[in-house]
Amino acid sequence: MPRDHTPTVSVLTLGCKLNQADSEAIARRLTAKGVRVTDKAVPGAAAFVINSCSVTHVADRKARHLVRMGRRLSPNADIVLTGCYAETAPADIAKQAGADAVLPNAAKESIPDRLLERLRERGDPTAGCPTLIGSNLRTRAFIKIQEGCSELCAFCIVPYTRGRETSVPIDRVVAEVRAREAQGVQEVVLTGTQLGNYGRDTGEREQGPRRLLEALLEHASVPRIRLSSLQAQDISPALLDLWKDHRLCPHFHLPLQSGSDPVLKRMRRRYSADGFHRAAALIREHVPDVAITTDVIAGFPGETDSDFEATIGLCREIGFAAIHAFPYSRRPHTAASLMLGHLPPPLRRARLERLLGLARETSRAFRRRFLDRTMQVLWEDDRDGRWQGLTGNYIRVYASDPGDLSNRLLPTRLTALDDEGVIGLTTVPTGAL
After folding, report:
1. CB proximity list for 282: less than 8 A, separation 6 or greater
2. What pLDDT, in 10s, does the model give residues 393-407?
3. 4 has which bridge partners?
4. Exposed end of the chain (fewer CB within 10 Å): N or C?
């Protein structure tokens, strides 16, 4: 049997769903040219693309770690560092870690052509059977509809790394969704830096997200459409009314950051704690079985004990399905980095631990509500002998089913809690799979 000489490129992603959308676009273009693409770090890969995050110093460290790991696994590989860390890190530091090229976000579209040219220069063929290894690209597609942010929150480096807001025109988004649908994708995740401001750069600030969703519901038939994130001030009855169409996933990610009004004001957030609470209540009023997930920062400069207790109290009262908690990290080019009252790391870590404990508690309580229910699960892949998939309201489900569940949307009975998800039992007879 002839040896397969098709080059492999590892595309590794850190951070947000917008980065996942960018990585998928890179992977699709490479695959179309006959390159094997994996989302795992594999020994002997011809190249690594590390799509990085820089929201915290921990994210920066992870990016450098992936660069070094790629170099260890494949000493002769071409290693490209891109993403937000590539915007903030001096090129010499990144290259000291082992990167051959450091490219900003604006240059991501050029990466496939650059890598193909390098593979040709090295004599690696770019023909054969293009495949995607260890990826759920055929099941769920991340589609970028907007990029950049003009809000300038005090803690956030994203306006510096992603630039000002730009929206992808509605007709292009519809065409992209229909193209992914034709490839068999069952769910599209609409991503962006500030989705609630979609259309603001084209004069459609108030109705941009709603008009886009209306167009997708009318012109596409993909079974699931999911929004990656909105802000509390984006929530309105007119927008929520669209969720009468069950193709819109009952899942809203609303970053809280703090439950204290003084802290929110210093953060330059555009809502109050009460306003956030009202937005969450409005969502629950309009969308049955909805999951509301959030982000919270522990230890923002000047955060007092009472400020933090207000955050704990609001998180407990709302009962988030998931809380992504992280300690405040001083970022260059941000207003918060110049503030007085930075808290010592041990205090930030202690507050983070309390938030993480609360996150486990509220997550289990949310998932427990759905035990013994039968829900539609989109099954993705088989890992370590267990299938895994997602409900529309973002519950991770695991099943040990002998059939092939890949990319199937199936009724599944949720039977027991797992560490971070639930155990499920498909209600379709095995012989019918």
Report:
1. 235, 236, 237, 240
2. 999 999 987 788 999
3. none
4. N
Beta bridge partners of 133: 38
pTM: 0.89
User: pLDDT tens digits for 4-36?
Assistant: 567 899 999 999 989 999 999 999 889 888 889
Ramachandran class of 44: left when φ > 0, alpha when ψ lies in -120 to 50, beta otherwise: left
- Between helix 208-219 and helix 170-182 the angle, nearest 10°, is 40
Residue given tokens 């407990």 in the structure block: 316
pLDDT recorded at residue 9: 93
Beta strand 386-391 pairing with 396-399: antiparallel
The pLDDT value recorded for residue 403 is 83
Q: Which helix (H) or strand (E) holds 202?
A: none
In the chain, the amino acid numbered 234 is: D
What sign does the dihedral 89-93-97-102 (CA atoms) show? positive
| H-helix segments, 145-207 | 158-162, 170-182
Burial class for 43, CB neighbours closer than 10 Å (0-12, 13-18, 19+):
exposed
Residue 153, pLDDT score: 94
Residue 35: closest CA among 127, 133, 137: 127
Q: Which residues, listed in sequence order, are joined to residue 140 by a DSSP beta bridge?
A: 187
pLDDT of residue 429: 56
Show the domains of the chain with their CATH numbers. 8-133 (3.40.50.2300), 140-368 (3.80.30.20), 374-432 (2.40.50)
Low-confidence ranges of the chain (pLDDT < 70): 1-5, 90-92, 94, 123-138, 204-206, 428-433
Edge-to-edge strands of the sheet including 101-102? 101-102, 78-83, 47-52, 8-13, 36-38, 132-133
Alpha-carbon span 274 to 279, nearest angstrom: 9
d(CA 216, CA 386): 33
